[in-house]
């Protein structure tokens, strides 16, 4: 029996993935209504195939508001996503409170696995804390690295590249129940010290940040020297040192919250231990700079050219297939456009808007009379909308499409000025 | 980064300009007296934009927005803020004198916005005595602030505070000036911040890049010197091939940005730059195109390495997204018009007079 405590994005996806591997799962969240909702198949998050997988495995899942129910589990994951503040600092208090609440109910010899995103040193500190609070208990404590990607969370949970497990003694065998559970996913299991595993998680995100930042820096140079990043990127993917899955798609900095949090953690660690923080700081600064690319283009091409500009914004989520708006470039843009008339539409995110930014019923409605269209989230729905429908709704001819959703379209003769990341501007006014 | 304390423009009781007869100070004085261009918040209430004055678009519930210069209300008249303006030159008030703080106390009221634009610039000497005088001015302003306070302090600094060789300058770029003039502003910024922290007076630190426009007294290498030599000698002298790129902001844009900062109660640091860097060759060619007479560009031996300086003006766009910068050609045109109106040797493109 596998248990999960803390049903945020990570916990919901992980518990459903565990059930789909044939394990009996007890998933705890103290919110009774939330548990009932999940039991009825209603999900609070958007992930491809998650609803179908939940429906197919409801029989193996028990969503419960009672922590004591986890007492029958051999392995209990603590899977609460760690909230971050405005400056991407972690708040570990909810996780600690959850562990304090649940741990007393766990059975002797149970494996307690922290799956949440914690900094180096947390798990060893937790071990001491548990010994102090629950003397004489034989709980086994592990830290397991999660590699959830919003929008691909279930796929990643079902088919992980590897498991990284932090433990007190890397040379000791994992408890059979825990090992058998991990083995069901048919991937390498790398066992290491607590601190190594905690830092491995941060290391992965630091490398992703490096790829994202390097890509974004090169994309900007491309825009300015008449090069096309999308001609360069395939060549890089074929380089074994870079690889076919490297993050080479230009974007508006780093968003989503997780990588930013780990960069902040790296800066803090460097500061606390007298190491150089320059690289992490550079990633953070460059991310902020690229996040505002749309604002710069929009201001130059539309806001400063019209007395009363109207802007249509498609997409609020920080990327498609998620409802997450954490550090969303779209929200950052809308905050900068306070006072400018904005109409926005997102297929999934519900946001009430502001004094000057108003929601629209659909994508074309948002375009009506607007001087510029900005595609801030490349939802598939937007790819299906005809250029002619948009142009007949817009009163201007500026299209800003950072992610290149419409980059394959022919704007010849339309007068459209098309701006996308990594490529020179296409077209212009007729 | 700068934050605006008033989302809707609100007129300060009065503006007091120190350094009011200098290049920027004289433009500022005229600008504030003639009425500051504002951003009218047409979607909401403000003292300057009451419901009764809203134009047709607002009353129909159609999209409305921030509008520069027009007040944002369709057919309604332009909305300019008129400030009671007190402008003090160095002749009227010697800020280096020990008595200056006391004199300021007799002039400046609690609610006033104080614009500290007085500084001995590089052309007055980049040496220790000049540094000492500049610091004395800041000391006296700081002492006045700490004893009496005011509503809002705007300190006009310089991009000279930044480390030489930075390719892209932002407000958080490293401040490590290569000369005493930049160090002057670093120290004066720190002095103003100290007094601001002590008294709670909101402080805006504005760092202009190279400023061009009519009345420039500094004769720095760039648009104004090129115009001046083009008109006087029919020549423009460039170092190397004029490859270096720099951002040159028009003095009118400086005034508009300072006006917006005053009207919105801006606090924090903001670079005043256009976001568009031109090579000196491009500037020279623009001058050649603007001047109605043959002008030859003469290339001189370069003495140092080629360096570039661009500005990321996102911070301006984030608070004033509709701000429209004056292009280089348009700025040159306006300078030429002013120069034609005022003969060379008058205040048009004159050089050498003390600000």
Folded structure, characterized:
The complex is a heterodimer of chains A (430) and B (355). Chain A is α/β, with parallel strands linked by helices. Helix content of chain A is 39%, strand content 14%. Chain A has helices at 9-20, 32-39, 50-56, 93-102, 122-133, 153-158, 176-183, 194-225, 229-237, 258-273, 278-291, 293-303, 329-336, 363-367, 380-383, 387-393; strands spanning 2-5, 25-28, 61-64, 75-78, 111-114, 140-144, 163-167, 189-193, 310-314, 341-345, 357-359, 372-375, 398-400, 417-419, 426-427. In chain A, the strands form two sheets. Chain A has an eight-stranded mixed beta sheet with strand order 3-2-1-4-5-6-7-8, sandwiched between helices. Chain A has a seven-stranded mixed beta sheet with strand order 11-10-9-12-13-14-15. In chain A, helix 1 packs across helix 3 (50-56), helix 8 crosses helix 10 (258-273) and helix 8 crosses helix 11 (278-291). Chain A is globular, with a radius of gyration of 24 Å. By secondary structure, chain B is an alpha/beta fold. In chain B, strands 1-15-11-9-8-2-7 form a seven-stranded mixed beta sheet, with helices on both faces. Chain B has a three-stranded mixed beta sheet with strand order 12-14-16. A two-stranded antiparallel ribbon of chain B has the order 3-6. In chain B, helix 4 links the parallel strand 8 (113-116) and strand 9 (152-156). Chain B has helices at 23-34, 56-59, 100-107, 128-148, 180-199, 223-233, 251-264, 280-290, 314-319, 328-341, and strands at 3-4, 14-18, 36-37, 39-41, 66-68, 80-81, 84-88, 113-116, 152-156, 168-169, 203-208, 210-212, 235-239, 245-250, 266-272, 277-279, 296-300, 310-311. Chain B has a domain at 3-38 and 79-215 and 249-275 and 310-327: 3-Layer(aba) Sandwich (Rossmann fold). Classes of the chains: A alpha/beta (430), B alpha/beta (355).
């Amino acid at each position: 029996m596998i248990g999960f405590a803390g049903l945020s994005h990570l916990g919901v996806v992980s518990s459903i993935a565990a059930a789909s591997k044939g394990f009996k799962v007890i998933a705890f969240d103290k919110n009774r209504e939330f548990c009932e909702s999940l039991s009825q198949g209603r999900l609070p998050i958007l992930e491809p195939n998650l609803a179908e997988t939940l429906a197919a495995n409801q029989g193996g899942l028990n969503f419960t508001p009672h922590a004591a129910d986890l007492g029958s589990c051999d392995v209990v994951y603590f899977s609460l996503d760690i909230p971050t503040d405005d400056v991407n600092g972690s708040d570990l208090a909810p996780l600690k409170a959850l562990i304090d609440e649940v741990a007393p109910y766990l059975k002797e010899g149970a494996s307690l696995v922290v799956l949440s995103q914690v900094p180096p040193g947390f798990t060893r500190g937790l071990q001491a804390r548990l010994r102090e609070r629950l003397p004489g208990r034989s709980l086994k404590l592990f830290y397991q690295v999660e590699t959830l990607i919003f929008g691909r969370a279930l796929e990643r949970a079902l088919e992980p590249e590897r498991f990284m497990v932090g433990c007190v003694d890397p040379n000791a065998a994992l408890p059979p129940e825990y090992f058998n559970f991990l083995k069901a996913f048919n991937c390498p299991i790398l066992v290491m010290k607590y601190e190594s595993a905690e830092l491995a998680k941060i290391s992965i995100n630091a490398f992703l940040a490096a790829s994202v930042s390097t890509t974004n820096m090169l994309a900007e140079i491309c825009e300015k020297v008449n090069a096309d990043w999308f001609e360069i990127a395939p060549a890089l993917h074929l380089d074994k040192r870079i690889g076919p899955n490297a993050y080479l798609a230009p974007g508006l900095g780093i968003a989503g919250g997780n990588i930013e949090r780990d960069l902040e953690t790296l800066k803090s660690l460097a500061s606390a231990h007298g190491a150089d923080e320059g690289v992490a700081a550079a990633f953070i600064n460059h991310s902020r700079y690229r996040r505002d690319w749309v604002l710069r283009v929009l201001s130059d091409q539309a806001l400063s050219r019209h007395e009363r500009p109207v802007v249509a914004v498609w997409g609020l989520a920080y990327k498609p297939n998620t409802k997450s708006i954490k550090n969303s470039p779209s929200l950052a843009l809308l905050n900068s456009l306070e006072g400018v008339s904005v109409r926005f539409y997102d297929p999934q995110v519900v946001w009430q808007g502001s004094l000057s930014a108003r929601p629209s019923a659909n994508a074309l409605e948002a375009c009506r009379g607007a001087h510029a269209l900005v595609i801030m989230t490349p939802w598939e729905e937007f790819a299906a909308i005809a250029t002619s429908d948009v142009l007949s709704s817009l009163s201007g001819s500026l299209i800003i499409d950072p992610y290149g959703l419409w980059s394959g379209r022919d704007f010849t003769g339309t007068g459209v000025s098309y701006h996308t990341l990594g490529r020179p501007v296409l077209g212009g006014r007729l | 980064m700068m934050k605006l304390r008033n989302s809707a423009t609100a007129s300060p009781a009065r503006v007091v300009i120190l350094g009011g007869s200098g290049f920027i100070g004289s433009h500022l004085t005229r600008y504030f007296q003639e009425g500051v261009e504002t951003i009218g918040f047409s979607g909401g209430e403000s003292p300057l934009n009451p419901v009764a004055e809203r134009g047709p678009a607002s009353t129909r519930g159609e999209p409305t927005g921030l509008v520069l210069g027009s007040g944002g209300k369709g057919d309604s008249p332009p909305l300019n803020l008129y400030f009671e303006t007190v402008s003090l030159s160095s002749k009227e008030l010697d800020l280096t004198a020990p008595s200056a703080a006391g004199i300021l106390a007799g002039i400046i009221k609690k609610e006033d916005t104080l614009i500290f634009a007085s500084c001995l610039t590089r052309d007055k000497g980049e040496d220790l005595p000049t540094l000492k005088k500049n610091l004395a001015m800041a000391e006296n302003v700081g002492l006045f602030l700490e004893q009496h306070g005011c509503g809002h302090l705007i300190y006009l600094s310089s991009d000279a505070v930044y480390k030489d060789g930075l390719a892209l300058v932002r407000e958080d770029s490293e401040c490590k000036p290569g000369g005493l003039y930049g160090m002057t502003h670093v120290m004066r910024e720190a002095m103003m911040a100290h007094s601001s922290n002590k008294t709670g007076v909101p402080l805006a630190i504005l760092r202009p890049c190279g400023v061009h426009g009519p009345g420039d007294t500094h004769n720095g290498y760039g648009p104004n010197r090129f115009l001046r030599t083009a008109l006087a000698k029919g020549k423009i002298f460039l170092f190397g091939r004029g490859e270096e790129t720099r951002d040159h902001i028009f003095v009118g844009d400086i005034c508009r940005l300072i006006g917006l900062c005053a009207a919105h109660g801006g606090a924090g640091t903001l670079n005043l730059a256009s976001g568009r860097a031109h090579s000196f060759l491009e500037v020279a060619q623009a001058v050649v195109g603007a001047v109605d007479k043959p002008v030859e560009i003469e290339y001189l031996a370069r003495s140092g390495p080629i360096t570039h300086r661009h500005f990321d003006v996102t911070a301006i766009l984030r608070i004033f997204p509709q701000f429209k910068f004056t292009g280089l050609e348009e700025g040159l045109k306006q300078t030429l018009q002013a120069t034609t109106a005022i003969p060379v040797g008058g205040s048009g493109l004159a050089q050498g007079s003390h600000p």
